[in-house]
Amino acid sequence: MEVELGLGKTSNTCLMRWSSIIATLGTSVLALTALVTVYLTVTTWRAQQNASRPYFVLKESPKVDLGNELSLELKFNNVGIHPAVNLSSETIIFDEHLSGKPIHHDESAIVNEISKDASSSLVMIIPSDEIYPKQLNINAQYVVVDLQYADPILNKSYNQEIYMKWNGVQEGNLQPTVHVRVEEKGKILAYFQKHGIDLKIRS
User: Fold this and answer.
1) Which residue among 12, 31, 52 closes a domain?
2) Beta strands in 79-167 (DSSP E)
3) Do 105 and 137 share a domain, yes or no?
4) Residues with Cβ < 8 Å from 9, sequence gap 6 or more?
5) Looking at the domain assignment, is residue 200 inside a domain?
6) CATH assignment of the domain containing 116
7) Disulfide check for 133: which of 55, 70, 112, 191 has CB 3.0–4.6 Å away?
8) Tens-of-pLDDT digits for all 203 residues of the chain?
9) What's the distance, CA 74 to chain centroid?
């Protein structure tokens, strides 16, 4: 009987240990599930925020006018769900050969709120003493636009940099504006550093 009682105690102890291990594993699985749920919830929330934030795209190809002065007009459209406020821009235009200082470097700001699907125009005028618009050939020019604005709903600020290249005029024919290639962007950033230009800082 003593031997049988000893075996019974051993079996009970083993069962208790197994029960303890199973309970611990169950608790760990629940905790891990909770962490995964929180992560997925936060990730989804952030994705929804990014989808809702204001975001500007070029509504159409930039308009170039060769009147008494060279002018470039960019029309931006807010494709986000939330409106944008405190929109400011910094525009820089310089020769594709990266020689000399920019022929245009200006800042502007818009007071009004720009709601979903609303448009805003940005016009850059180049004085004729920088580029005479009536000549048959005009060198290609880089056009860089830095946009800074805020989302009043999320209470966050955003920044967009747009790099373009207007291919100038060849034999009196107006050339198109295209996006800058990856290898060109590195040269542009080096040009900015050389001339002490920081797009993140407004004057």
Assistant:
1) 52
2) 85-95, 104-110, 119-126, 141-151, 156-166
3) yes
4) none
5) no
6) 2.60.40.10
7) 70
8) 444 445 555 555 555 655 565 555 555 555 555 455 444 444 444 555 567 999 999 988 899 999 889 999 999 999 999 999 999 999 999 999 998 899 999 999 988 999 999 999 999 999 988 998 889 999 999 999 999 999 999 999 999 999 999 999 999 999 999 999 999 999 999 999 999 999 888 77
9) 17
